[in-house]
Design a protein that fits this description.
79% of the residues lie in helices and 0% in strands. It has eleven helices and no strands. The longest helix is centred in the middle third of the chain and has 29 residues.
Length: 270
């Protein structure tokens, strides 16, 4: 049992790291659950640790969240024109999360049934390929900082492919934003705020799911994974906001291609 708890902690750390970096948290959870021989009941574990990542991101961006909410109410109820730009920013966030919300709801059950090594391997290779393409084509001298409605819509559309295990959500938003020549700093903030909005309903669903399956799960293991995820997500997100650069996409792309290829080959060998 103690060894299993260590495995849960490691899975929590993996979730915290891979949720933020453009290398797919869902894909890595499938890979390491396979390595650790931990069988999870459907999407329960992934959604539970995702809730920990959500809390970490709220803690990191609470000032921005409070500011946007306050300014939105000021514009809607007080007609404060100085708050209009913040209100429009919130509208853009909503536009960006609508596509993945619709596709996620429609395909939730099907996606949960395709978490196999061969599929995750292919999806990771797709993520790696797209990261390398956007790295190669990126012209850093032609960027803009303000998120436009076009940017928001394009990010939202590219984000929909992240419902498949092995396709990185943060990677898909980076690919979508950089293809529209949005600066990386503005893109990361927008991407993380999108993540918060998308994760709120998923977190409520995870609570319901866990309540229904409480007798069949390792409560202590889940709680250990939750704590590890929360801490790791906060630390990694903080440093990503400070340190991530376009040149790093090359390394993430190569990594995803390599891990994806190994996972795909392993499925047919073992």
């Amino acid at each position: 049992m103690f060894i299993d708890w260590i495995k849960y902690i490691l899975l929590g750390i993996i979730q915290g790291i891979t949720e933020i970096l453009p290398i797919s948290s869902s894909g890595h959870l499938v890979l390491f659950q396979y390595i650790f021989n931990l069988n999870q009941p459907g999407l329960a574990f992934e959604m539970f640790t995702n809730m920990a990542s959500l809390i970490a991101m709220i803690l990191l961006f609470y000032k921005d969240i409070f500011h946007l909410i306050k300014q939105t109410f000021r514009f809607l109820f007080n007609k404060d024109l100085l708050a209009k730009s913040d209100f429009l920013y919130v509208v853009k966030l909503i536009i960006a999360v609508i596509p993945i919300g619709i596709f996620g709801f429609i395909l939730k059950d099907w996606v949960g049934s395709i978490k196999s090594l061969w599929f995750v391997g292919l999806a990771l290779m797709l993520t790696g390929t797209l990261l390398l393409i956007i790295y190669r084509l990126r012209n850093q001298s032609e960027t803009h900082d303000e998120v436009t409605f076009k940017d928001a819509l394009f990010i939202g559309l590219t984000q929909t492919i992240a419902i498949f295990p092995g396709v990185s959500r943060s990677g898909s938003t980076i690919i979508g934003g950089l293809s529209q020549k949005l600066s990386l700093k503005s893109l990361l903030k927008f991407s993380f705020l999108c993540y918060i909005i998308v994760s709120i309903p998923a977190s409520f669903l995870s609570i319901i799911d866990l309540a229904e399956q409480s007798e069949s799960i390792d409560i202590i293991g889940y709680l250990l994974a939750f704590g590890a995820t929360l801490i790791t997500t906060y630390v990694v997100a903080y440093f990503v906001m400070k340190r991530l650069q376009i040149k790093h996409l090359l390394y993430f792309g190569i990594y995803c291609l390599s891990v994806g290829f190994i996972a795909f080959i392993t499925y047919f060998i073992l």
